[in-house]
Amino acid sequence: MDTSRVNKVNDYVWQIPKSGDMKVPAFIFADRVLLSEMDDKVFVQLSNVASLPGIIKAAMAMPDAHWGYGFPIGGVAAFDPDSGGVISVGGVGYDISCGVRCHRLGLKKSKILPKLETLIEELFRYIPAGVGSTGKIKLTVSRLDDILKHGAHWAVEKGYGFPEELEYIEDGGRIRDADPAKVSTMAKERQKKQIGTLGSGNHYLEIQYVQEIFDRDAARAFSIEEDDVVISIHCGSRALGHQIGTDYLQILGAASRKYNIPIKERELVCAPIKSPEGMDYFMAVGCGINCALANRQVLGHLTRTVVQRIIPEATCELIYDVSHNTCKVEKHKVSGKMHKLFVHRKGATRAFGPGHKELPKLYRQVGQPLFVGGTMGTSSFILVGTQKGEDLAWSSACHGAGRSMSRRAALKRWKGKGVINALKHRGIILKAASLRGAAEEAPEAYKDVERVVEATHGSGLARKVARLKPLAVIKG
Amino acid sequence: MEELKPEWQTFDHVADIGIRGIGRSLEEAFENGARALFSIMLEDILAISCKQKQRLECSSYDLTGLFVAWINALIGLSDLKGMVFSRFDVEIEGTRLKAIVQGEKWSEKIHGRGIEVKGATFTEAKVEEKEGLWIAQCVVDV
What we know:
The structure holds two protein chains of two kinds. By secondary structure, chain A is of the alpha+beta class. Helices cover 33% and strands 26% of the residues of chain A. Chain A has a single domain (3-88, 96-404, 446-475), classed as tRNA-splicing ligase RtcB. Chain A has helices at residues 32-37, 40-49, 109-112, 116-126, 141-150, 152-157, 185-191, 216-221, 238-258, 276-310, 387-393, 407-413, 416-425, 435-440, 449-459, and strands spanning 7-10, 13-16, 26-29, 55-66, 73-79, 86-88, 99-108, 204-213, 228-235, 270-272, 317-323, 326-334, 337-346, 349-350, 369-372, 380-385, 396-397, 429-432, 462-475. Chain A is globular. Chain B has three helices and eight strands, in the order ββαβαββαβββ. Chain B has helices at 26-41, 63-81, 108-111, and strands at 7-12, 17-23, 52-59, 83-93, 96-105, 119-120, 126-130, 133-141. In chain B, strands 1, 2, 6, 7 and 8 form a five-stranded antiparallel beta sheet that branches. In chain B, strands 3-5-4 form a three-stranded antiparallel beta sheet. In chain B, a hairpin with a 2-residue loop joins strand 7 and strand 8 (133-141). Chain A binds chain B through residues 39, 66-67, 69, 73, 93-95, 130-132, 186, 189-190, 199-201, 239, 241-243, 245-246, 249-250, 253-254, 257, 265-267, 402-403, 406-409, 433-434, 436-437, 440, 476, and chain B through 10-17, 41, 43, 60-61, 64-65, 68-69, 72, 75-76, 79-80, 82, 106, 108, 113-116, 118-123, 125, 141-142.
């Protein structure tokens, strides 16, 4: 990005001043290097978001931002329904509530290593991954409606996990603003066989160990120490979320015309929150979120079942489950008063600071944990939400490393087997459903996650708690 | 710029992949766009036999929207039926499309495993006539 077009606020915050149709300014959270490497499209897309009706305060981009669909990936924006605020497909994305959950095994690395190979083999056999894979749970459309209404609660009722886990999931494992009637039959038909599947692309299951702790108090609250082993699972709402996205792209496209909302990019199509189309989409997104929460709960429990079969003394308790692609109603302070806002986070994580009443008791003093996925060869991080993040960006932070190289370029450069062997030399086992997928997801095709996390920490959006290193990875 | 000829192509995008169909008619461009889609979902689209037929219809508010809707309809149908397709007979009237698509059940052994496509997007999406050929393209979210 041409850095002369933005004003420096401090080392980690940059402002795009209000101009043209922009109703508010935009802010980019990044250091100078990340900013200069950012696509110019981030500038354009943020300015477009800042031009939408009813946007409050500013359009924002997290340190891992890159060119997205309508919103940049890493884009955050809040809208006031009482000021004509809108809800946009581009602000949520196609993989609704794609997110990460992290389980601690309650064991040190040295205990796991002798059984690591067996463990990852078994997990790979047991967890359906990759394009075309189907889950062990087969449902009818009417049963699927239960999932769309009850989220992770449905999974726990069916024996996938325990009721006490639910408070360690955003929104207690269920969004109440969810109406299955607003989701197409096609979306439901496609999802019937996909509950409990990992998917493909950048989705993964990773066995990791805690390499370094940066924040002892938060780490204590999350019950993690150096050398502890954890398992992170990254996946989303699968076909249901994809189909909701594509269905409403057409529906809100027509709505934008009906309500005369000028649209600068077709994926920014939107409708007033207070219109029937806007409310329908919001209720469908709620279903997508519940589907993702249920899916990750099932996967988390399947993982625990396998882990405890191989290593009976492992606990596999859930640390937390975060979502990335969402639009949620939250109360935030605007000009000193609390307002109900519709917060879009596209490729960004909710990061509530200490004291937030939604957080489980054990974490309320330190803040919400969030997990930033790196690549299968580098590091991932556990961060914690801050009070400052509330003021800066509606309690939002980064979500991952972000790609630096296209999939085609990665395919030309690496072969799947080569990537697997290179990782093996570094002591990391990779099980890939697709060799092509392994090549496309080569660690070198991603940005430097350390820099993204430093910028998140430096700007005050969230604080570093621990660095995780991969031991074994399943790629869909 | 390379010489334009009727074919299917993929093109670069930061995080995802673009698909492009080029044809002597609008319909052929849409058919080739569909081949580009299956080329990333599978390792070998030449291995697909035309054993079963499916009918498909979609519409939108303009041609670019129609191409995105067509690709999304194929992604949905393929997922729903567990099938992959290699022959497409497309008819377009205004911004409505009807098609008969032919293919078979997906098999990892026969077709290999590519990457899952979540949806077609409007990024880099366009349908245009150039040098006597039609080009239909968009980026797909993977």
